[in-house]
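Q: Could you fold this chain for me?
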Amino acid sequence: MKYFSIVLIALLFVSCGTSVGVDYDKEVDFSQYKTYNFFPSIDSGLNDLDDKRIMQATDSLLQERGFIKSETPQLYINFFAKEQITNSRNTIGIGIGSGGGNVGVGVGGGIPIGGRVIEQVITMDFIDVSNDDLVWQAVAETELKEKAKPVQKRKHFEEVISKILKKYPPSN
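A: Sure. Below is the predicted structure, expressed as structure tokens.
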């Protein structure tokens, strides 16, 4: 029973992770890019506070890796999100069963736990400023509790942006 509980908890954490997919122009030499800034008119679909959280996380992670935020950048970064509120997929199962001989009858069901969640799809674009071409794009699918506190939201966006930027620059 102890091992079953550990496996169940591990599956719960694995199933709630952020998944990230990327696409990029294979003809581009990504080592040429050293400076960046955010697209001048970002319309992310998020509120201003969440926009700031994403920008702060992106700034921090890119600057740790040697990129420089510039007024004359080589790359513009744009991001946007689609959100949908749903009930948590986490449930507690209950069941009733009876059987005898070679006949068995059972009824089961799940009770949702954890409240409602926001399913987010966050897209981040890197655009070459000199020729206005999209050179790299990441799409992250993730979940956030509907009633998350500001500290939880900051941590959430830091984790999502970290997972996105782990895939930049791409390895051909």
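A (continued): Helices lie at 2-15, 48-64, 150-165.
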